[in-house]
């Protein structure tokens, strides 16, 4: 049975149920399968040998998610070739592509968890009530060890961008 955690996160003050484990720095990053587009899949292994900043957003079509993705797109240019920034949401892949085109976002990789919520359940961010992923940040080193985690307690809050970027820079 999949673990459920209630009351660790909220949406506008209302409790949410997160499905999956609470990961911590030092844990091995779990594998996942997400969609690059409607036919191609991606897994953690597709980014082997890279430092991964995984920015998880509920939906790109909301204000905080939009700002979060734009911010990490700006940061991507200064982090170099050894770093990949993955933005994962439950948005459909063509909606992600449309949003990126309209927003001019071209340095982060958008991946969709819409099919089976594989990422959300493996990383403990699948919101049972909404079938979305809870806002969170994971930094994973070249050996797929998690070095930084931020689970946001409130769905509408921004992550600590500076701490996430600093965690990446410590690995360079």
Automatic annotation (TrEMBL):
Residues 23-172 form the Thioredoxin domain. It catalyses: a hydroperoxide + [thioredoxin]-dithiol = an alcohol + [thioredoxin]-disulfide + H2O. It comes from the Bacteria. Thiol-specific peroxidase that catalyzes the reduction of hydrogen peroxide and organic hydroperoxides to water and alcohols, respectively. Plays a role in cell protection against oxidative stress by detoxifying peroxides. NCBIfam families: PRK00522.1. Belongs to the peroxiredoxin family. Tpx subfamily. This is Thiol peroxidase. It comes from Paenibacillus chibensis. The gene is tpx.
């Amino acid at each position: 049975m999949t673990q459920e955690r209630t009351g660790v996160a909220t949406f506008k003050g209302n409790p949410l149920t997160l499905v999956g484990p609470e990961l911590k720095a030092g844990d091995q990053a779990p594998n996942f399968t997400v969609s690059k587009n409607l036919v191609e899949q991606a897994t953690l292994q597709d980014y082997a040998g890279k430092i991964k900043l995984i920015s998880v957003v509920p939906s790109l079509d909301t204000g905080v998610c939009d700002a979060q993705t734009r911010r990490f797109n700006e940061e991507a240019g200064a982090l170099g070739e050894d770093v990949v920034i993955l933005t994962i949401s439950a948005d459909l892949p063509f909606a992600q592509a449309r949003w990126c085109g309209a927003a001019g976002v071209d340095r982060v990789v958008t991946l969709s968890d819409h099919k089976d919520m594989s990422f959300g359940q493996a990383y403990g961010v699948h919101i049972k009530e909404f079938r979305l992923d809870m806002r969170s940040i994971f930094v994973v080193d070249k050996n797929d060890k998690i070095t930084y985690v931020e689970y946001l307690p409130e769905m509408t809050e921004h992550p600590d961008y500076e701490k996430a970027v600093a965690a990446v820079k410590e690995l360079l």
